[in-house]
Amino acid sequence: MPDFVLASASPRRRDLLAQMGIIPTKIHPADLDETPHQGELPRVYAERLAIEKAQAVQDQFAGSVILAADTVVAVGRRILPKTEDETSARECLELLSGRAHKVLTAIAVIAADGSLSRRVVVTRVKMKRLTEEEISVYLASGEWNGKAGGYGIQGMASAFISDLSGSYSAVVGLPLFETRNLLMGAGYPVLTGGHA
Q1: Each residue of 7-32: pLDDT tens digit?
Q2: Distance CA 67, CA 83 (A)
């Protein structure tokens, strides 16, 4: 069985893999400039980053199966940032309040033989109209820090989501159904015969 390398520092992605019985042999986040290119569409951006993250660590882990992912929150063609301060988090929440948006999670898997496969999963999410008090309480929680679009669906913000169409685990950070299929395709057994 080849080593399994997760090219992500996200504890949520580690937790989601654990749900499938997968514990990465190594966790090695790729250090990339994640600035969108001029005019880059959300789907293209997410897929490019996932592939670049996987390829960035490929040389160090030849013969391993490598998984990388990127999650993007988009309103129309606009890519929302991973929020690093309360001001940007507030702007995202005010923009998302009372409307639907898309969460795109791209996954890239490099097989032990070096071949690459990828998938982009799009989930439609609707957020209730938020009151000023709800926004302030959420900002005070700090849950928004480093999250695409200024919220994490698995925390307090779950109470703000009125509708979701697609993959819940993709919104958290890793679409499990598609991830399993890509890993199986790369020759990495997942949940076969009751064990990983």
Answers
A1: 999 999 999 999 999 999 999 999 89
A2: 24
E strands, 21-115, are: 26-27, 65-75, 78-79, 100-110
What is the average per-residue pLDDT within 106-130? 98
Furthest C-alpha separation in the chain: 53
Q: What are the residue numbers of the active site?
A: 70
Radius of gyration of the chain (CA): 17
DSSP letter string, 27-54: E-------PPPTT--HHHHHHHHHHHHH
Which pLDDT band holds residue 1 (cuts at 50, 70, 90)? confident
CA distances from 55 to 9, 49, 59, 62, 112 (A): 16, 10, 8, 11, 13
Mean per-residue pLDDT over the chain, rounded: 94
User: What is the mean predicted confidence (pLDDT) over 175-192?
Assistant: 91
Q: Which of helix, strand or coil describes residue 186?
A: coil
Residue 146 corresponds to which amino acid?
G
**Closest among 173, 53, 158 to 104, alpha carbons compared:** 173
Two tokens at 188? 């990495």
